Hints:
- Its cofactor is Zn(2+).
- The chain is built from 13 helices and 8 strands.
- It is α/β, with parallel strands linked by helices.
- The protein has an 8-stranded parallel beta sheet, with helices on both faces.
Amino acid sequence: METGGNSLPSVGTDGTKRKVCYFYDPEVGNYYYGQGHPMKPHRIRMTHSLLAHYGLLHHMQVLKPHPARERDLCRFHADDYISFLRSITPETQQDQIRALKRFNVGEDCPVFDGLYSFCQTYAGGSVGGAIKLNHGHDIAVNWAGGLHHAKKCEASGFCYVNDIVLAILELLKRHERVLYVDIDIHHGDGVEEAFYTTDRVMTVSFHKFGDYFPGTGDIRDIGYANGKYYSLNVPLDDGIDDESYQSLFKPIIGKVMEVFQPGAVVLQCGADSLSGDRLGCFNLSIKGHAECVRFMRSFNVPLLLLGGGGYTIRNVARCWCYETGVALGIEIDDKMPQHEYYEYFGPDYTLHVAPSNMENKNTRLQLDEIRAKLLDNLSKLRHVPSVQFQERPPDTEFPEPDEDLEDPDERHDLDSDMEVDDQKLPDESSRKPPSNIIQNGRIKRENIENELKDQEPHKVAADHARGAEPMAEEMSSSKASDIGPMAVDEPSSVKAEQDNTS
Ligand SMILES: [Zn+2]
C-alpha cells in the first residue's frame, strides 16, 4: 500500500517524532455492560496491556484522566439527562421506567454498576486529550473514548455521553476550525448532529450505509445553514477492502485538509470496521485501518485519537496497539510479546490477522462516483471560515476533588466573551456554547435540492424549516421531553446491533 502523504506545504517529514500523550484509567476494564452485550470495556485494558508489553508506554506521557464533572458533561448534554445518568442504578431502574424510555437507556444502552463514573472516565480522557493538544502536544490518545452516537438528551448505540463533542468544544477554544474524521463502521451521527449547522467543525464519516445502524449518513446529507458543505458522508457497502477504502479516504481527506485547513483533527478509530468484527461487515486489515492514522498524522496538525466501536475484542486490542505505534512513529513486531491476555491471540499470537475472502460489494464505479460527488461538494467551499479571537477562552480546568464542590456560578467569570465559549447568561443551563456552534435536539438535513431534484420528499422534513432558527429556547431548556427524537431517519435499523448481541 502506498504510504500516502499530502500536499500541504507546512508538513514536516513523516519521520519526525511527535509529542504524544496517552490517557488510561486502570479501572476502565472493570465496567461491564452485562452478559451477552457486545460492548466490552475490557478491550481497553487488553490494549493497554499490549502497549505495556510492546514497550510503547515509555515513549509517551501516560496520564490517568480526571473524571469529567457534571458541568463539563453539561456543556453539550441536557442537565436533566446528565442528572439521570448520575442517579440511575441497576437497583433503582425499575422505578424509572418513563425516564429510561425518554433517555433511551435500558436496551442497547443498559444501566450497569458504575455507569456514571464510566462516562466521567471516558469523557475525561477525551477532554483531557483536547486540553493537552491545546497546550502543545502533537497527538493525544484516549482509546476509551470515541462514543459517537450519544445525543444531547439521549443515549444511543452503546454510547451515553458524547466525549467527542465535548473534546471538540474544548479544541474550539484554541482553534478556529476543527476537523472530525470517523472510521467506525457506523455513521458518526451524534457528532454530525451536534455540529450540523456550523462551519467551524467539519465532520467526515466513512460508514456502512443501507439497512444498518443508525440509519443516517446519506451522501446527500451535507450540513445546513452556515454548516452547509461542512458535513461529509461516505456511504460504503459490505466487504470493503484496504485498497478500496484508501481510494476514497486519501483523496477526500487530502482535499478536506487543503480547503478546510483545520487547526486540530479528531480521528475516531472505531475498530468495528476491521475484518471479522462481531457486528461489522467490512474487510479492512489492521494495516489498512491504521493507514488512516498514518495519513492523518502526516499533516502534522494536532491530532486526537479516540476509540469507538469494535466487538471482536482481540482484534480491537491489536488494532489500537498498532495504531498507538503509528502515532509514535514506531513500527512494532508482528510477533506478540507474552502478557496476561496472551491466550486471546492464539493460535498464531501475531499482531496482524489476514482479512477474509469475503466479496467486496463496493464496485469501482460506485467508488468513483462517491469520490467525484464528495470532491465536487468540497470544491464549493471557497473560503476558509474564521472567527475573531480577541482573547482566548480559559481551558477546562480539572481541579482537585474538593474544589468540585465550588459554586458552579463562579465559573462564568472565567468564560470570556469568546464566541465559542459559554454565554454570560444568568441561568445554569445557558452556560453552553451558543447555538451557532452547536446544534442540539434535532438533526437538520439539507440536501443539494437544486442538483438532486429527484430525491425523496422525506428529506425536506417539517423540522427542516426551523433549521436556520437560533435554538436558544431549546438550548436553555432543561426540559428535554419536548425535544423529540430525530424527526428524520428515525432509526428503523436500531436493532441491527442488538440483533447480533449475545
Ligand atoms: Zn460502530
